[in-house]
Amino acid sequence: MDECHKLLTNKVDLSNPEGHQILRNIYEPLPLGGPPGQVTIQPQFFFNKDLDYLLTGDKERKIALSISKLKAARYLDFGLEELVPSLWVESEREYDISAVYGITHWWFRRKEFYINKHSESSDREAVRSQMRILSVISVKVFEKYGYNYLREIILRRADYQEYKISEKDFKNLHPNDFEDLFLLNIQEKLNHLPKTDKTSLHTAVNMWIRNLVIRNRVGDLQLGIESYQTKINLERPNWDAADYYFKEDYTIVPKPRAVVYRDRNDQRKLMRLNELHKFSDGTLTRVMEKLDHMVKDFHLFEYNKGMETRKWSEDDKRRSKDFITAIEKRLQIRRIYRSLESFVGGRIRDIDYRLINRTT
Length: 360
What we know:
Elements: H1 2-8, E1 32-33, E2 40-41, H2 50-56, H3 97-101, H4 108-118, H5 124-127, E3 133-144, E4 147-157, E5 162-165, H6 175-186, H7 195-219, H8 221-226, E6 252-253, E7 258-262, E8 268-272, H9 281-301, H10 314-343
Antiparallel strand pairs: 1-2, 3-4, 4-5, 6-7, 7-8
Helix pairs in contact: 6-7, 6-10, 7-10, 9-10
């Protein structure tokens, strides 16, 4: 508890934990070290062990969860993925199911009931939507083993149609939906519900937000760095571009779907579409802007000045637009999770929550 208090009140020196005053602002970018050309972020500045808890479900590790120890910072540097060689794992690991749901401390019957209910099949296409939730019309709850399970939730979305979901559908909801449901509660737009139903809904939503935040902090490079994870559950990106020597910079490789780009040391690297979560905001934004320039240049001149060997085809344009869309989606998901982190105390937000709108 003493360590947590010092971290939360900024009164611990991360390079000298026995000290009483912090030597640097932990909300500023992490300091770099190492010889020229091999600069890295120093590993002693990472201390959250969410991955250890998710793998083992060890109750004793619960205090190490990042959202209970230290607020997250924000790092926009280009090329962060190249500066954290100690964070990657050799092979990605499966999580302990009780730790994933955040119910390791529950007694057996209640835990078994919760896992069985949430493991039931759910029609993803029927419940997944990016339309805003305008209101919650009604909630039906039943209790077993001390847990109030949401058997039915009737929502009204932005198309003014009613949709019926249950708690088992939470795993297929869009992250924006949890943001909407949380904001409806704190903005006092659920007061028409019975008090017990309102409490049950808020408890379930809050639990899922915490679980989603913890899992995404160890499964996304940017969020992992911002929350000071000692390890993230990601293998190093397969960014070797040696086999694409004759491919122009910032053009799309069709198989595997990837883009060739230049890193901070002006070396050619490969960014695969299915590995976008392994790259930092700065790198994704830089690549997206370069691709966007290529698309616009194609429209204006029918020939891309950055490509010296050939004209740009319609396939190049289409693939680039698809890649830009995928990057924008990844950056949006991160913005949403930063908002969710603030709801569970994992990120500071200097604004009245009653004035917050959903993240776009």
